[in-house]
Design brief:
Strand order of the largest sheet: 1-8-7-6-5-4-3-2
Order of helices and strands: EHHHEHHEHEHEHEHEHEH
CATH topology: TIM Barrel
Number of helices: 11
Oligomer: single chain
Helix content: 40-55%
Radius of gyration: 17 Å
CATH superfamily: Homocysteine-binding-like domain
Strand content: 15-25%
Shape: globular
Number of domains: 1
Structural class: alpha/beta
Number of strands: 8
Length: 273
């Protein structure tokens, strides 16, 4: 089975490198203040072996980034595309309108706002629209519909949050099946501790489309990330090996990890391509 290697987090990596990412725009702020830093992170993941780079559009919305949100989203695509090669793809990130750990804040009618970003990203020519880090099933499906309506390949990734408690595996399975029925081309879970991710992957492993995970580093005590611990990337890859044994073919990493984790995944699972 061929593994498609995704990249790792943008926001926590920018913060680790000393770039301010204040709320509400968070990781989007460097698009205006330090675009070279965003490009540097993309380049690091590409050099580590990632084949899919995700645009820094997690917070490029009018309600978080202000009136320049569309300009910022377009710049984010340009920065990702700048470091890709012909064998790489760019995924345009579409995230929850509010907090990805606060499903209670999800608005009643999120579709139009998701459609605005989806259309900007599709017009800029992303290869994939990645609806990611959704803890609220109806909002995730609204984003999926908005993405599919652009005729762009659409992936969706659900999260149960940093403690694995925001959604149950069965909840994610129900949402994932609906997304597949709508036309989603791949199903993932992300930003769940790596040590818990296998339970959620098991729930989406038989839906007939490629599936995978990009987990966070969990609690610092687990020793997988949030620091320069040289063993962290190996411990993360140990969990990823279990996901691959379950049939996952889309593998990356999320908060608290970095290029070293992607490099370790590449060396262990993608040496032939």
């Amino acid at each position: 089975m061929k593994i498609t290697l995704l990249d790792g987090p943008m926001g926590t990596e920018l913060i680790a490198q000393g770039h301010p990412c204040p709320e509400p725009a968070w990781s989007a702020m460097p698009l205006l203040e330090a675009p070279e830093a965003v490009e540097k992170v993309h380049r690091a993941y590409a050099q580590a072996g990632a084949k899919v780079l995700t645009t820094n559009t997690f917070r490029t919305r009018a309600n978080t980034a202000g009136e320049r949100w569309a300009e910022m989203a377009e710049r984010a695509v340009d920065l990702a595309r700048k470091v890709t090669t012909p064998t790489m793809r760019v995924a345009g990130s579409i995230a929850p309108l509010e907090d990805c750990y606060r499903p209670d804040l999800s608005p009643r009618n999120p579709g139009p706002q998701h459609a605005q970003l989806a259309e900007v990203l599709a017009h800029k020519g992303v290869d994939i629209l990645l609806c990611e880090t959704f803890p609220h099933i109806p909002e995730a499906l609204a984003a999926v519909q908005a993405a599919i309506d652009t005729s762009t390949e659409t992936w969706v990734s659900f999260t149960a949050g940093p403690d694995g408690t925001l959604l149950r595996p069965d909840d994610i399975r129900v949402g994932a099946k609906q997304a597949v029925d709508m036309g989603a081309a791949a199903i993932l879970v992300n930003c769940i501790p790596a040590s818990q991710t296998h339970v959620f992957l098991d729930a989406i492993s038989d839906l007939g489309v490629p599936f995978g995970a990009y987990a966070n580093a969990g609690h610092p005590d687990e020793g997988m990330g949030w620091s320069s611990n040289p063993e962290g990337a190996k411990r993360y890859a140990d969990h990823a090996e279990r996901w691959i044994q379950m049939g996952a073919s889309l593998i990356g990493s999320c908060c608290g990890t970095g290029p070293q984790h992607i490099r370790q995944l590449h060396e262990r699972f993608c040496r032939d391509g």
